[in-house]
């Protein structure tokens, strides 16, 4: 208990906690129970010291030395229940958790990562961590409060602003708070409640992030597929645009928010997809919703045909249009045709589908759907959100790669995934774009994206139009990971794209594996549960990037192997014995990668002579 005494000396909360309570806390396996007994679990603003920022900072300085001792002891003696429980308790304390975060950042500063940027990095990481920790009380990753976990009066007090809906209703009145809690309880019951991890991706330490407690983890599930969010050209463009034009756009596109950068980006996107025009929205969710709802509600008698695996944004747009709709079985051309043929050529029709389905990694049948659209006089709406920047000679997407872009009428994409910024867009004929621009409330009645976002996105699109570096690194790492996991029997859902879904098959286990990866191995991979995937097909969705080289990959593979062995999770062979699930263990279920080996080799030849230092590609190429 040496470290407990040190901790008591440094931390005003621990000092007030009797040693017997600390001892009990340190041996309790029910972490949540010990937390609730511990004064540190109180929100920061309800504690006297944390009420003053100066007080917090002074205490943090005092606590830092003891935190260092506690942390290093906890790391060394990982098996010691008492030390690690105490460490967890300290992490949840606003003062001690902060001190541990600072220590963690300092320790990282000593580690070799990207040597050229190390000094700069440590100071950035440390500063942002301190700011974040000052504002947000650290808490365990999974400490999202469950409904009814505290008496109503206590939670009201803790919230500090419990007014309105949380007050008892007048007799006979609708009880809003009970209604919200009941809805949440349903989510907990069917395991679809979503836990949001606090993950702060560090630009200088890509693909690392610090968590809410300041701990560093490797992110293996980001949609910043190519690391463009931290690309120096993108970041510099955004910084200089802010200096020139300020932070915000200042209005809607119609009123003061339509700048040259918006127009330049739209021209660039139109040219990327070889269309007359493009229109930028605040996100592709908004783009999909606004475009489908506007077109289908305006065209008289319009009928929509939607792939059953379509993203929520398209479903929302289709619903909002109130037009007649048919949902065809995923990637099933016969089903689609059987529905299309029910209508005259004179009926306006839209077929909505995706190029890369993000949770399975499957690819839509672009050319075949184009042929059906032609036959039945429909227009096509292709969501290339997970493909733009990633496929094709200029990064225009899967349609470009398979030479089917010109057969698509509307292509939608995001600026927030491979392009690393935020925003969404559509590209199509001039008249269609002008129609959406003129009628879609989701485009018209909202503040336009800031000029800096436009210039960051423009820079990323232009960069990826000509650079094969990022795509080559991403493709290579995807192949390496898929084949390594498959060799070990870890069940990867077979697919032709850059997504690596690892089948777990149960919601609770998927979440708990994700938690174990985070807590024990410092690896962040989000679990994907119902309703995003079908019940029984729950998975981990892994997205390698050019920055996930062999060293990081070894770490991930080793962690998965350990977890699969220790927990006895189902391997590919196990799934096969059960007849297969989600394509895993299905005889003949293997799939080739969309990007042909010769095209990857060509990209690598062009990319790596000048990319060796910026990516981890050098080692990757050697070991390929
Ligand atoms: C297929 C698909 N379409 C559209 C969107 C929405 O894109 P954005 O993030 O730009 O709103 C997503 C988001 O994940 C998506 O997966």
How does this structure look, described?
- The chain has 624 residues and is α/β, with parallel strands linked by helices.
- Among the domains are: 199-225 and 469-584, Aspartate Aminotransferase, domain 1 (Alpha-Beta Complex), CATH 3.90.1150; 231-465, Aspartate Aminotransferase, domain 2 (3-Layer(aba) Sandwich).
- Helices cover 49% and strands 9% of the residues.
- It has helices spanning 2-10, 12-16, 19-27, 31-37, 53-76, 81-91, 94-110, 118-135, 152-159, 176-189, 232-245, 260-272, 284-298, 312-321, 333-340, 366-375, 398-401, 430-439, 441-444, 451-466, 469-488, 507-521, 550-567, 572-577, 597-607, 617-623, and strands at residues 199-201, 208-211, 216-219, 277-281, 303-307, 324-328, 349-354, 379-383, 410-414, 424-428, 500-503, 523-524, 527-528, 539-542.
- Strands 4-10-9-8-7-5-6 form a seven-stranded mixed β-sheet, with helices on both faces. Strands 1-2-3-12 form a four-stranded mixed β-sheet.
- Helix 3 (19-27) crosses helix 6 (81-91), helix 5 (53-76) packs across helix 7 (94-110) and helix 21 crosses helix 25 (597-607).
- The chain is globular.
- The structure holds pyridoxal-5'-phosphate.
Assign a percent range to the helix content.
Answer: 40-55%
Which CATH first-tier class of the domain at 231-465 would you pick?
Answer: Alpha Beta
Task: Output the structural class.
Answer: alpha/beta
Low-confidence segments, ≥5 residues, pLDDT <50? Answer: 1-13, 19-90, 92-160, 617-624
* Proportion in β-strands: 5-15%
CATH topology of the domain at 231-465: Aspartate Aminotransferase, domain 2
Gyration radius from CA atoms, angstroms? 26 Å
Biggest sheet details: 7 strands, mixed
The spatial strand order of the largest sheet comes to 4-10-9-8-7-5-6
Mean pLDDT: 80
Number of helices: 26
Straight-line N-to-C gap: 50 Å
Number of strands: 14
CATH architecture of the domain at 231-465: 3-Layer(aba) Sandwich
Described by the principal axes of the CA atoms, the overall outline is: globular
Which superfamily, in CATH terms, is the homologous superfamily of the domain at 231-465? Answer: Type I PLP-dependent aspartate aminotransferase-like (Major domain)
The hetero compounds bound to this protein are: pyridoxal-5'-phosphate
């Amino acid at each position: 208990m040496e470290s407990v005494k040190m901790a008591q000396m440094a931390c005003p909360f621990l000092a007030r906690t009797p040693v017997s309570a600390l001892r009990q806390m340190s041996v309790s396996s029910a972490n949540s129970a010990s937390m609730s007994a511990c004064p540190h679990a109180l929100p920061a603003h309800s504690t006297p010291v944390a009420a003053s920022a100066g007080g917090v900072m002074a205490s943090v300085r005092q606590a830092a030395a003891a935190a260092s001792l506690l942390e290093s002891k906890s790391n060394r003696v990982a098996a010691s229940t008492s030390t690690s429980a105490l460490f967890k308790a300290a992490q949840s304390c606003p003062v001690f958790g902060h001190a541990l975060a600072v220590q963690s950042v300092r320790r990282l500063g000593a580690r070799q990562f990207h040597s050229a940027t190390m000094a700069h990095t440590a100071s950035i990481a440390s500063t942002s961590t301190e700011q974040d920790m000052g504002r947000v009380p650290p808490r365990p990753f999974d400490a999202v409060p469950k409904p009814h976990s505290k008496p109503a009066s206590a939670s009201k007090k803790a919230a500090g602003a419990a007014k309105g809906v949380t007050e008892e209703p007048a007799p006979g009145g609708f009880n809003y708070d009970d209604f919200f809690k009941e809805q949440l309880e349903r989510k907990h019951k069917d395991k679809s409640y979503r836990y949001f991890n606090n993950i702060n991706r560090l630009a200088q330490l890509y693909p690392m992030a610090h968590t809410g407690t300041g701990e560093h983890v490797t992110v293996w599930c980001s949609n910043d597929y190519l690391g463009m969010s931290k690309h120096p050209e993108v970041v510099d463009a955004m910084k200089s645009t802010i200096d020139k034009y300020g932070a915000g756009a200042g209005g809607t596109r119609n009123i003061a928010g339509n700048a040259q950068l918006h127009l330049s980006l739209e021209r660039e996107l139109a040219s990327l997809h070889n269309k007359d025009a493009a229109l930028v929205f605040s996100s592709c969710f908004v783009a999909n919703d606004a475009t489908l709802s506007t077109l289908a509600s305006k065209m008289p008698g319009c009928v929509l045909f939607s792939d059953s695996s379509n993203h929520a944004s398209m479903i929302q747009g289709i619903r909002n249009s109130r037009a007649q709709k048919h949902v065809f079985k995923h990637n099933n051309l016969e089903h689609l045709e059987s529905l299309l043929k029910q209508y005259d050529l004179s009926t306006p029709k839209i077929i909505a589908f995706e190029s890369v389905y993000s949770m399975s990694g499957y690819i839509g049948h672009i050319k075949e759907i184009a042929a059906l659209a032609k036959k039945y006089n429909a227009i096509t709406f292709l969501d290339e959100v997970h493909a733009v920047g990633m496929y094709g000679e200029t990064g225009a997407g899967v349609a470009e790669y398979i030479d089917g872009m010109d057969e698509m009428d509307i292509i939608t994409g995001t600026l927030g995934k491979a392009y690393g910024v935020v925003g969404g867009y559509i590209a199509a004929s001039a008249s269609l774009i002008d129609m959406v621009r003129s009628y879609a409330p989701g485009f018209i009645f909202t503040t336009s994206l800031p000029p800096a976002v436009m210039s960051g996105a423009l820079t990323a699109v232009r960069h990826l139009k000509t650079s094969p570096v990022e795509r080559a690194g991403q493709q290579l790492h995807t192949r390496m990971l898929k084949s390594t996991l498959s060799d070990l029997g870890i069940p990867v859902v077979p697919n032709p794209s850059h997504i690596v879904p690892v089948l777990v098959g149960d919601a609770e286990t998927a979440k708990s594996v994700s938690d174990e990866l985070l807590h024990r191995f410092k690896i962040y991979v989000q679990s994907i549960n119902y309703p995003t995937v079908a019940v029984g097909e729950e998975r981990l969705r892994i997205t390698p990037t050019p920055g996930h080289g062999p060293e990081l990959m070894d770490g991930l593979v080793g962690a998965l192997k350990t977890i699969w062995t220790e927990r006895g999770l189902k391997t590919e062979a196990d799934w096969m014995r059960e007849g297969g699930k989600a394509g895993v263990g299905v005889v003949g279920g293997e799939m080739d990668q969309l990007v042909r080996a010769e095209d990857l080799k060509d990209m690598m030849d062009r990319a790596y002579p000048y990319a060796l230092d910026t990516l981890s590609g050098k080692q990757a190429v050697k070991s390929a």
